[in-house]
Write a structure and sequence with these properties.
By secondary structure, the chain is of the alpha+beta class. It has helices at about 5-15, 20-30, 75-80, and strands at about 30-35, 40-45, 55-60, 65-75. Strand 3 and strand 4 (about 65-75) form a beta hairpin. It is globular, with a radius of gyration of 12 Å.
């Protein structure tokens, strides 16, 4: 799957130091996928190259093509998996 990394989504990637290669990994080989009632899909991937942090991509697939909503390293998942 490809996703547009321009606009707000691209800004979030830059601001949060999230590499585009990590985005591709999360989309193509996620560790978890969560479908939400609001029509978004959350792709979750543990990134070994970034201290094993958990990357969460929020994608809206209800539009004609997949559109990135936001991306962040999910601290809650990190704490959950450390225990």
């Amino acid at each position: 799957m490809e996703i547009d990394t321009s606009g707000h989504f691209g800004d979030m990637l830059k601001e949060r130091n999230i590499r585009k290669e990590w985005v591709k990994m999360a989309l193509n080989k996620p560790d978890l996928i969560e479908k939400q009632d609001d029509g978004t899909i959350h792709y979750i991937k543990q990134i070994e190259d970034y201290d094993n942090r958990w990357l969460r991509l929020v994608v809206n697939e209800d539009v004609d093509s997949a559109k990135g909503v936001t991306a962040f390293f999910d601290r809650r998942l990190r704490k959950k998996h450390e225990n």
